[in-house]
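Standup notes
- HV: blocked on the assembly model, inputs below
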Amino acid sequence: MTYASYPALNEYLAMRAMFQYFGQKFSDLPPLTEEMLTWGEAKSPEYACLPFKIYLGFCRELARRKINAFFVHGIRNIRACRYLDLWEGIQKIVRREGYPEFTVYSWSGYGAKKSFQILKKIMGGPSYPKMLMGILVYSATLDATDRLNDLANQARPREVVAGSVDAWLSRWLRELEKVRRWRQAKEILGRAKNDFGRIKLGQTRLVIKVALAGDLFKIHEPFFNFDTIRKLNRLGVAVEQPQSFSLLFMGGNKIWPGGYYHRRFRRYQKKSQKYLKSIPGSYFDVGIGEIVDQLERGAKGIVHFQSFGCMPDIMFKPILDRIARDFRVPIIHYMRDTHASDTAYQTRLEAFADLLRRQELKK
Amino acid sequence: MEQAGPFGIYRMTIGIPRAGLYYLYYPFWKTFLETLGFDVVVSAPTNRNLLAAGLKVANSELCLPMKVMYGHILDLRGRVDFVLLPQMDECSWGAGTYGTSTYFCPYFVGMPDVMEAEFPDLKILRPVMSFHDNQIVDGPWLDFGRQLGKNREVVRHAFDQALASYQLFLAERTKNNRTPLEILEKKKVNTGDLPQKMALVGRPYIVYDESANLELIKKINQRGYRVQTLEMIDPEELRLNFRQLPFHSQSHWYLTNEEYGALRHFGQRPDIAGIIYLIPFNCGPDFMVEETVIADLRRRKPVAIISIDESTGEAGLTTRLDAFIDMLK
């Protein structure tokens, strides 16, 4: 079997490290493209959401490459959006279109025990100590990937030489491709942090922080969200990576109960309670709590990226509006569908960044 | 329940929107609240003004039934002390192991939170409503009753009464072959000489809201067909039907699975001339229905899929219906 996952936020690096550790084949992933989206849109059911369309095109590409197993994250509770329908629907359509069969496996999200069982089955029944080490390799690489991304997101608005932060980021993400042991990921992260000091940053620049909101699929995948974080960074706006995979995996599954991510996860859940007593989407509560937390720590606005047909995003909107009212910050909702224009989005972000800057300068 | 007001003692009123799951659970909600001593007020039937008010406030991306729900909540606002918006939760079967649970659409799960965010002045009562083996789970309702200040015995009695009333409603639907529209709204449906039968499958809040669906049932009746709906089928029969689908083809959505069951059930019945599948435009949970059931069903029965939103016109709907009925002849 050759496995693949989805490319969001370079999380596949952690997947790759774990599969390599267990001696399983993990494929290089094709980047998401417009062609995938076009094909996905043509073959999708009428009311499919944007992620369905894009991942349909992506899975067709995997099937073309004879990749027969797709390994994805589960979700904490199944009432979330159409996540499981999504993969099953995609399988059905790819099969109907005459491409080779592939299987979708999902793990985590169902709690540690269930995830452990799924993983054991896929990895050919390794011993429990080895399984634990494999999860450690995954977690350490995931943590390193997220921390590198976050450092880059914070630094990009201040970079003196355009592109220097991204060059640093891609160099160290490439290093993470080699991870086989969990200590390696830690070492690479340490070296990357040392190397980070060499990037020239303009410390006196006015950098405004905003909170980025939206459903997981959109905010984790730059292709979906028109690379919102980089766009904002170039406009002098810093963004913390919301709902990072480390937070969701380690915090949500209590990999280290009482550990950093678990505490953060609990904190966000607590903070969401003023606005939310139900969980209408997978990590809806965590997402809301994180936004509240960021606003309390000085974020000056909210950027909400949503996609057409996404139910959790539609639910997010009025709740985010209420949060924005409570914190007296501006909010921008942007909805993407298959015909949305990158340029139009850029213009709206520029206007929003201008508004934030003027507000700050007035103070 | 009585409360002191500026003009003396009055009974508190709780409003129930005549939208959403009203067509499925109203008898339960009403009996529960009335037995506890509250007055129940239902919003006005959907009409143009009510819909227009809802459209003004609601997110444009929402489906039509949710926009209608906004209108009903606006109709109740200011008229009642509280609005009842149950938080719909899990529907499980058997031992509750993974894979045996289904859910209501996220809009129904999160609606109380969304409405609280939209209307900060609105006082919302939000009991959790979950199901096990098609039965309403009592625990959350007993807790809810006690939160309303009633003692355990009174709440238990109210729950038992409500359940009995719900069972009666179910029996009336399935054994006497009546729609919720006839039972709850006292509307005349399927009257007169209607020699043939047509199945109308869809979510109750779009099938029975005559204003939202432009009186589709009446239109079908006028063309000589008796309408058969999902709610007239025994729930166990529905379940057996959707359970016959391969496991991975079953949906994670409670109402979608019921639709799968109904479509399969009507597909096998020789007395059904054709099936109309009514879907609100942009319905998230129903997006795979065509792939999963209808593609196969079309080989056995004529099926028309009619999608509906607030811009759907009378003429367009009539033309679609006439074309479908012409095809049946």
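- HV (later): unblocked. Residues 2-127 of chain A form a domain with the Rossmann fold fold (CATH 3.40.50). Chain A has 15 helices and eight strands.
- Next: hand off to the docking folks.
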